[in-house]
Every structure is written in structure tokens, then in C-alpha cells.
Amino acid sequence: MNNRKKVVIISLDYDYCGDILFDDRLSTLKKDEEISRAKECQESLTNYLKELSKNASATELYVGSMRQDIRTDEANIQEFKNGSCFKNYADFCEKHGFTFNKFLLPDAQNNHSSGTTMGDRIIQTIYYPELPPPMRDEKAPTLYPALGSKVVIICQQLENASKEHPDADIDFYFFDDDSENTYLNEIKDHFLKHKPPSNISNLYLFKYDWDEKVSYNADEAILRLHTHLKQKQASSDSHTSTAAILSVISEAPVIPKPEVEIKDNAACINQMGAQEANIKIEESETLQSCIRFSA
After folding, report:
1. For residue range 177-211, what is the model confidence (pLDDT) as tens digits?
2. Is residue 291 part of a domain?
């Protein structure tokens, strides 16, 4: 019998994603019908995140945005007029019984304790300029958020969560608006080749898009499960390696009802890439479910 604790980690992008949870974003909308639709998205996403936390001994929220330091947060506040993700996420967690984990990427880059960057405006994020093309933009300055940077963020968040909860089984959920699936694909591809920490039981990558409903009057806001990676331990009596391996499985996480319903299961994964990584594929597909909030 497994008596290990279950911990849920939610890594939430902010701009055009998690910012819909806050009145700072709603204040940028001018039309009454847009505000009304935004409030529906706000309520539905809140309910969904709360549902994910059910049956967990702890639920933590990480900043999944490029806003990984104070100055980047300030710059985006000026551009998007949607408030500070640090303050808003902290308030959200306090209101709903989550823990706001103040870990940011520069904490790992500078060997600081978790939360140091969030309290020191001098510290800046470095997005590893040594990454080869196409993982970075050759024309961009060193501190520009390059392709691949979200892979680095998620890797460090997984490591931090694993270290802080060594005796727990962790379900990790990442949400991003990612219109071209660039970051989501990069993260998926990375973890098809490199194992996460051994106590990361499930890694869920979600695309969340509220703008379709708010700005373009779609019937529903869209939450799409891009990839679910499940980590399993090989049998102890196996003649093969006992190291953890990943399975890409066609199984959705717990879905809140009646707020959401699942539609349109379809997709495939690069078989050769998975074989090279020694990864078992069940039913030869990654789930790409379209989960739509009901009106």
C-alpha cells in the first residue's frame, strides 16, 4: 500500500493565461460583454485549479511565466497593464488555501534560497545564451527570453519541488497560452529524452486560452491537454535497468464536473524519438484532449 503523500504543483503562466484570474486584467477590458465573458473564465479556471488540488496533502503555485525577476515583472506590468504576477498569485493562494512557492529561476542560477529573487530587484534572469540555435535567437541580447527558456524554468521548478517534497509523489501541472505550441513542444521533447526527478509521478502540459472567448466571443474558453507524461518505476526483479522510465499515456487528469467536458481526442507522437529515449508508448499516442469550459 502506498502511504506516500500526494503533492500537487501548479506552474501557471501569467500574461494572457493566469492573469484572467485577476481584476487587473479585467480592468483592461472596455466592453461590458468582454468583462462578463472574462468573469466566466475567471470563475471556471479558479474552479478547475481548486479541483486539481482535491485529495492532495498540499498544493503549491509556481510562477510559470517569463516574469522570473522583479524587473521583468515590472516591465510586463507596464506593457500589459495587468498587475504583478507575484502579488496576484500570492493573494490568490492565500484566498484559496494554496501555498505560493516563491522560487524563481535566478534562485537556482545563483544558488540562492527559494524566494531570494522575489525580494531583490537587482537580481536578473539569465536565459543561457550558450544554448544552440534554434533554442535561442541569435539576434537577441543575452537576457532576452529565448526559445528553450521555459524548458529551463520547468526543469528547475521540478528539481525544486522534488527537493522540497522528497517523500511525496508529485503531480506537476504546467499551463501556458503558447499560441504556436512552441514551449509545450519543447518541454515535451525534452522530457522524452531526459527523466524528471524520480518522485515526479505525473507531468501534465496544458494550453489555456481565455482570449478566444473574451475577445472573439467563442462559446467556451479552451483548456487543452497537450501532453501527459507518467513516470513509472521498473520492476525490482527485472533484468533491465530499474531506473524510472516515462510512459506517454492517453489518460486525462481528474476533470471537474460539471464545469468541463472532454472532446476531440487526437494526436500522435514522434515514434522514433520516443524509441531512442527508451520510452514506452501506450496506445501509440499522446493525449491532446480539448477540454472546454461549459457555459
Report:
1. 998 888 999 999 999 888 899 999 999 999 999 99
2. no
Q: Across-strand partners of 59?
A: 8
- 255 within some domain: no
3-class secondary structure, 132: coil
Window from 84-88, 150-154, 249-253, 273-277 with minimum mean pLDDT: 273-277
In a domain, 261, yes or no: no
| Torsion angles phi and psi, residue 273, rounded to 5 | -60, -40
Range of the domain at 41: 5-227
CB 197 within 8 Å of CB 164: no
User: How many Å apart are CA 73 and CA 224, to the nearest integer?
Assistant: 26
Spatial separation of the C-alpha atoms in residues 225 and 205, rounded to whole Å? 6
- Tell me if 170 sits within 8 A of 162, measured CB to CB: yes
Q: Which amino acid is at 206?
A: F
Rounded to a whole number of angstroms, the CA Rg of the chain reads: 19
pLDDT digits (tens, 9 = 90+) for 136-173: 344 444 444 455 689 999 999 999 999 999 999 999 99
Predicted local distance difference test score (pLDDT) of residue 276:
30
Burial of 114 from C-beta contacts in 10 A (0-12 / 13-18 / 19+): middle
- As to burial, measured by CB atoms within 10 angstroms (0-12 exposed, 13-18 middle, 19+ buried), residue 130 is exposed
DSSP state for residue 20 in the 8-state scheme:
G
Q: Is the pTM of this model over 0.90?
A: no
Cell triple for residue 126? Answer: 539569465
